[in-house]
């Protein structure tokens, strides 16, 4: 009996030791896998192709993850809930050409920037919506919670119609139920390039100053933030950012700060 009890005790001890090592990330644990919230319909930045999340943002994040010793699992979501999902722990990282605005810094922390861009209004050809004055009284579609949502809300007299994703807005614009579809310029241009027979054009366009696109993390997760910034700096320095950017942006020059050996785009986060 004593021998049997001794064997049971030894087995329990061994099991407890195994659990402890696993919980501490022992040698058999392997790289951590982080959940990344992203979109599926906004090329060339973030999109789904043949069942795989890709685009400039996501391929750059894959490179950073490899450098910094973690893996990523991409999960599709709506933009309007993305930052809340990051802040609340549903996602470890937000990757969705997210402009690092002061308002958003109250909710999440941002990595240093990896892109700059413009906001544009896609319209029917000949609509002549070339300035903010022409946008007054028009029905303007936006992705809910985006920088473009904020832009359209400041246009005097505009009727702002909010959508969960980009495809829905483009469909409404084609049907004539919107006067303008306010989107990042690269997304608008990509749609026109892919649909040359659709009678649409780019109208009023404005530069998004001082709010570069960046990856979002929970404000308390400084370790992950440091890893993202470290990996991004290395990717700028050795030309990887320029290489990946060139795969997805054929006609738009990369910011000189992000070209090989450039200083990068620093984002200053608000206090916790």
UniProtKB/TrEMBL annotation:
Is Signal a UniProt keyword of this protein? yes
Q: What is this protein called?
A: ABC transporter substrate-binding protein
For this protein, the record's PROSITE patterns field holds: PROKAR_LIPOPROTEIN (PS51257)
Residues spanning the signal sequence: 1-22
Stored Gene3D superfamilies: Periplasmic binding protein-like II
CDD domains referenced in this protein's UniProt entry, alphabetically: PBP2_peptides_like
Keyword line: Signal
User: Quick check: keyword DNA repair in the entry?
Assistant: no
Q: Which Pfam families match?
A: SBP_bac_3 (PF00497)
Tell me where in this chain the Solute-binding protein family 3/N-terminal domain is found: 33-252
């Amino acid at each position: 009996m004593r021998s049997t009890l001794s064997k049971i005790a030894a087995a329990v001890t061994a099991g407890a030791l195994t659990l402890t090592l696993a919980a501490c990330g022992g040698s058999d644990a392997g790289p951590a896998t982080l959940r990344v919230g992203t979109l599926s319909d906004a090329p060339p930045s973030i999109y789904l192709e043949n069942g795989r999340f890709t685009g400039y943002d996501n391929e750059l994040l894959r490179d950073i993850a490899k450098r910094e010793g973690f893996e990523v699992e991409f999960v599709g979501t709506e933009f309007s809930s993305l930052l809340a999902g990051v802040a609340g722990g549903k996602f470890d990282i937000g990757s969705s050409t997210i402009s690092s605005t002061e308002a958003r810094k109250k909710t999440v922390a941002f990595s240093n920037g990896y892109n700059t861009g413009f906001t544009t209004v896609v319209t029917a050809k000949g609509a002549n919506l070339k300035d903010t004055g022409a946008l007054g009284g028009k029905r303007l579609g936006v992705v809910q919670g985006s920088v473009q949502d904020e832009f359209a809300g400041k246009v005097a007299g505009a009727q702002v119609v909010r959508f969960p994703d980009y495809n829905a807005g483009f469909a409404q614009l084609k049907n004539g139920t919107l006067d303008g579809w306010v989107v990042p310029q690269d997304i608008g241009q990509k749609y026109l390039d892919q649909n040359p027979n659709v009678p649409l054009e780019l109208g009023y366009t404005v530069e998004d100053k001082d709010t570069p696109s960046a990856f979002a993390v929970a404000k308390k997760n400084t370790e992950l933030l440091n890893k993202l910034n470290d990996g991004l700096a290395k990717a700028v320095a050795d030309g990887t950012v320029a290489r990946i950017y060139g795969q997805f942006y054929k006609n738009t020059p990369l910011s000189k700060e992000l070209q090989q050996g450039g200083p990068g785009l620093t984002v200053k986060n608000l206090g916790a």
